[in-house]
Amino acid sequence: MKQISLYADRNSFVHDLDPISKLYYILFSILVPVILPSISVTLICSFLSIILLLLAKVFKKALPVFLLVFIVLITVVIIQGLFRPGNETIFLKIGPAVFYKEGLLYALKVTLRVTDIVGAFLILVLTTKPSDLVESLVRRGLSPRIGYVVISVFQIIPEMTSTMSTIMDAQRARGLETEGNLITRIKAFIPLLGPVVLGSLVNTKERAMALEVRGFNAQGNKTFLNEEKTSVLSKPIQLGLLLIVVMAFVWRLLT
Amino acid sequence: MTKIIADNLKYKYPLSDKLALDNISFKVEKGEFIGIIGANKAGKSTLCQALTGLVPHFYKGAYGGKVFVDGLEVKEHSIAEISLKAGIVFQNPFTQMTGSKMTVYEEIAFGLENLGIAREEMQKQIDHAMELMDIASLKERNPFDLSGGQMQRLAIASIIAMNPEIIVLDEPTSQLDPEGSEEVFLAVQLLSRQGVTVIMAEHKMEKVAKYCDRILLLYNGEIIDFDTPGKIFSRDDLKQYGVVPPIFTSVCRELGVKKSGTDEYPVTLEEARAALGRKVK
Amino acid sequence: MQKQSMWSLKFSTAALVLIPTAVGINYIGKLFAGLLKLPLWLDSIGTVLASILAGPIIGALAGAVNNVIYGLTVDPISFVYGITSVAIGLAVGILCYKGWLSSWSKAALAGLIVGLVATIVSTPINIGFWGGQTGNVWGDALYAIVLAKTDSVWLASFLDEIVVDVPDKLLVVLISFAIYRGLPGSVSQMYNNSNKFESLD
Ligand SMILES: Nc1ncnc2c1ncn2[C@@H]1O[C@H](COP(=O)(O)OP(=O)(O)OP(=O)(O)O)[C@@H](O)[C@H]1O
Ligand SMILES: [Mg+2]
User: Fold this and answer.
1) Which of C186, C189, C191, C192 has most ligand 1 atoms within 8 Å of CB, for mutation?
2) Where are the domains of chain C?
3) pTM
């Protein structure tokens, strides 16, 4: 079975942490740089995420995602460096292009902020099984029906992708043009997508019935087969993160 | 003990102007194995769903008469409540997998978690269901990695784990290869021997003849006949209802060979062999 | 038959199961667009279909779940754009309820509106997150030109987004409409919750 999740199974204390604490960490990583918007604070937060990624032994898996983000960030650096309103101090001249200090500093800020947030999310995503995350949320009051919806996507997508390649082959065998000019290619889109959509919609009926006869809409509290993963560190970590956010806020008000 | 009572059941799907079921009345006793046969669109699936509350609760629509499963009136109870009395297995094993569980074991637990069964009890029931369906060795496998026959047995196990007195199967092997079909029929037979009341809609008449105690013949949403396989397949007018009897019955009818001491034609290989053997001697 | 309010939170199970399917359709749409080398994303067909079939709330949920899943599997940035997906789901659901998806010309207009809604919601996110850019080559080129000429980040960012979003959403809505019209009645009927019990006794 192909898995579409980014989760990487490793042995680390970050993996052993409960998903909720990791959600607290994301909140912390977003809020602290917003409350204290200086470059050094954002830099510290970004570094913290990267260190945690290293400790979780998942930094290698994080790199491609960072790379994807950095490609966009390069254009941010170029465009903001060249054109940002308020650009005054010349920093660098390359031929006819003039980069300004204000724009570049702003681009640096954007880069750090994005690194910080992406890093925090990656810690959650790379070290937590999606089903564990959703189950934790359901235990804390998320509707189990919504929880089901989120989790089932992970298996439904690979199922649909395999249907998709079957249909692609079948339609090509019937002589559907999938190459050529833009119009030809756009025209090919519906005969390709249509059958996958129809098939998957028809399936929703049987799946919905199969769920209902297995108590999907049962009243009363549900139970869980697996015991909840908890760590002695959870509470102190969550409180600590909250405390830092509050302190940052107080600091901001006082200074 | 009577497990199912249908009393003048009528049903019409929403936006449809024709009754999908009309004037359906019958009773089923504990432990019986009942076959439902009939042409395409005869109403077999609709009847199966009426026994498990999907008709009318899932679709809504127009409903008349009463159905009781294990004493519970279907119309007055939710699908979840009825699922503790009567479970249902569908044709397509894929769509019956919840898609939210990573292992066979967890997949079976899904219904029990929803019903709020305590953990120890849950584990006991899952183990029992896996054993019955002979899938204990697949416990840690991903449901979607199984063969069709294995997956369908998992679907049955997921229902059995909820401990219903009645299990309804709607053409459970129509999407399986012969090997997978055989696995499933044997598993269902085993259930029946455990005292579970089985209702199975099925097109494969040889199987119906082999396993069922009685057969309910449907046509156009109405019951034409409800009797033993021998009586049903010996009818002269089956063709008119879109039913082709088992090959053994057809052959014996051609040859004019009946079961000894009866007015019925043989319906299984064994019966045909016995009857023909007598004739040859 | 009395039409149920489009804001009802009482979803049928079929409507809920439609959500993962919609996310799958989004994903497949994006893949096919890539395979056919189309210059647009076409990654919200499932969200739009979910809205048409089951109303704005299911559409919005489909949009939200879509981006959460995308964030968990491919690109964490898409969490942030979940708001845009939700807006698309809501917009289509409302337009559909008001009868805008009844003919090709109306559907095209609805597509333009949805594109505009997506742009309006995305622009502040782009500014907050990237300083206003979108990462799309054509859009960003326009952004650079406008920024150089006018000094307005907001205008530049808005135009950057609109040149990409409006054609994309227009096509997405038209494709979804085409697929919807091709669905058999028993399928398109399945998700609305307005069917009622009647007694035959
Ligand atoms: N969801 C639905 N909405 C409206 N009509 C339906 C629906 N499902 C089935 N019907 C109609 O109800 C009648 C009985 O169909 P049903 O599926 O019960 O037949 P069946 O005996 O199971 O057929 P098959 O052998 O093809 O499975 C048919 O006329 C069918 O068209
Ligand atoms: Mg049927």
Assistant:
1) C186
2) 13-195
3) 0.90
